[in-house]
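Revision sheet: structure tokens.
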Amino acid sequence: MKMTLEIPDDLYRQTKATAALRGESLKDFVTEALKVYLERQVPGQGGWRSVFGKARQEDVEAIDAITTTELERIDPDEWR
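Predicted:
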């Protein structure tokens, strides 16, 4: 989808320069930056999930199930 954004000139120049230094197109750089930003904003999406990046949803769900099961086995008194 195409859209037009109006951003400050200095931010545009900095973004374009950073993308160029990383060998990325401006489009790819901004797309990835928005994805990372949004992942940080959604509750429950931080922590270990950020390590997996582009993991398939079914893989994340399987790991979630294992983690939940294992964490439920922890005895709080033994943990101390």
